[in-house]
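Q: Hi! First time doing this. I have a protein sequence and I read that you can turn it into a structure. Is that right? Here it is:
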Amino acid sequence: MTSQHISDTDLAAQPAAYWTGVAYEALIAFTRARQAELGFTQPQYWLLRNLSRNDISPDGHGMTLLELQQAMHSYLRPEDDLKAEAEVLVGRGWLTRDGEGRLWITEVGDEARAGLKQHAPAIRNRIHQSIDDADYVTALKVLQQMIRNTGGAVD
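A: Yes, that's right. Below is the predicted 3D structure, encoded as structure tokens:
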């Protein structure tokens, strides 16, 4: 499907699922490409965030790969290999593994996480370029209502 030269009436008749899928794939590909240019992957960043008491982790305790996969289940993609990504971070000294197989973020890893996080606003700004905040909010409210209309949960 294409939106070139389509009237608003015709555009309104197109399936939301198609366009949300196209948007999802484009946004993920763009974000991951920008992160790769900066020398890290999205799953590596998520590992650091989920293990940092200064970010998502409530207590900074180590977690097993299974616990991390469960914590990230709503945003991991099928091709994401957390074991391989964690090994890269262990090799960099950003994570350590204890005798029980739990991964822990190191001080250097938490500093790296904070540095990586600084790139997020530039990526977001590029994605939101030429989109008014009010239009963005309206689009999200429409999507949330569609989710509710189809029995989905909006957190």
